[in-house]
Design goal:
- The chain is of the alpha+beta class.
- It has a single domain, classed as 3-Layer(aba) Sandwich (D-Maltodextrin-Binding Protein, domain 2), CATH 3.40.190.
- It has three helices and three strands; from the N terminus they run E-E-H-H-E-H.
- The protein is globular.
- The mean pLDDT is 89.
Length: 98
Amino acid sequence: MAAMTNTLGDAKRSATVSVGGRFTLNSVGMIRRLAALDMGIVLMPEEIVADELAGGRLRRILPGWHGMPTPIYAITETRLLPAKTQRFIEFLRQRLGR
């Protein structure tokens, strides 16, 4: 499997690191579970792993460092969106815009 890279940063510096492993997953729940079983290191928002951190199943290894923001796009077929779709996009902007 080809290695991927992640850029991490703190208040003063950044570093790009090569990341590789036995698994490539697109399930946040499975990634979190494998990390809690000591099968890897994860880079995830604290809200997603809060229970595992509180329960001692995960621990921070680079306190003060964070991943770089990843752009996210909402693609629609038309500009005329139903109200519920508009509210969902607004929710994503508020929630992910931090």
